[in-house]
Specification:
The chain starts with a helix and ends with a strand. The chain contains five helices and twelve strands. It has an eight-stranded antiparallel beta barrel. The protein is an alpha+beta fold. It is elongated, with a radius of gyration of 23 Å.
Length: about 270
């Protein structure tokens, strides 16, 4: 935490210096070099040397699976697709194993997404439906990873495929009907009628039956969690495109929440 605060202070100093030096005609690269050589950056130089900030736009798909902690049975699944959102990450300088194309890195990512539909699944069939529920999720995760790089090492033109861990904090807020709870026979049948288009002839009546028969729960849960991270990433000079899937598992009392964010990102890379 102390190193993170020092890093943030250095970046703030950089921003302030950049504004001052702009009037003196220095380029961005020259300003960054001045910051690197300053005494205030001495403590964090090993951290920021070769690191980079990536900022851009992402299309995110959020899925939050709610499970019974005692038996790991799924109780509900809230999801949504193609929600645009800003994207920002901080990554340390990547390292390689000898002269091979295998390497490893550490990143710090921020993700914020929401979902408005519930997925009801019966016998390998599913239906996404608006039940008036919603879930919002904020994830802050440290992502150590290993990757294979296609292209020249230490180049700004490459393609990587990688896998790793996600360690961090997630906050989940919202509501959900427990449509997958098999112990509630009336609810499970109402969900089956909605997916299979049986029971009431009117779609609206089938949705109302789910709302009437199924238990609705509110969630406002946050905490530390651990999960996984898979990514495909390509970069050409300062522009980067990537496809990333990250999830965290939060466990509290009798419920387990598993937020998962799939992101398609287009961003600009700022070397430090």
């Amino acid at each position: 935490m102390r190193m993170t605060l020092l890093m943030l202070m250095t970046l703030i100093s950089f921003s302030s210096l950049a504004l001052d030096e702009k009037q003196n005609g220095l380029s961005c690269a020259e300003v960054i070099d001045v910051v690197k050589q300053s005494e205030c950056a001495e403590l964090v130089r090993p951290l920021i040397e070769g690191s980079y900030i990536t900022a851009g736009l992402a299309l995110r798909s959020l899925t939050v699976t709610i499970k019974d902690n005692s038996n790991n049975n799924t109780l509900a699944e809230v999801r949504d697709t193609a929600i645009p959102a800003p994207y920002i990450s901080f990554d340390l300088k990547p390292s390689y194993f000898g002269n091979s194309h295998f390497g490893w890195g550490v990143g710090f990512n921020y993700g914020d997404a929401y979902a408005l539909e519930q997925r009801i699944t019966r016998s390998n069939e599913n239906k996404d439906v608006d039940l008036g529920t919603y879930i919002t999720t904020t994830m802050l995760a440290l992502t150590p990873n290993a990757f294979y790089q296609f292209g020249d090492l230490y180049s700004d033109k490459y393609f990587r495929a990688g896998v790793g861990m996600a360690l961090g904090y997630a906050a989940v807020r919202g509501t959900a009907f427990l449509t997958e709870d098999k112990s509630n026979a009336g609810c499970y049948q109402a969900g089956t009628d909605l997916v299979k288009k049986t029971g009431p002839t009117n779609q609206r009546l089938r949705i109302e039956a789910v709302k009437t028969q199924c238990e609705q729960q509110n969630y406002n849960q946050g905490g530390l969690g651990v999960g996984g991270n898979i990514f495909l990433q390509g970069q050409y000079e300062h522009w980067q495109a990537s496809l990333n899937l990250a999830n965290l598992i939060l466990s509290k009392k009798n419920r387990k929440l598993e937020p998962s964010i799939l992101s398609l990102q287009l961003a600009y890379v700022i070397p430090l």
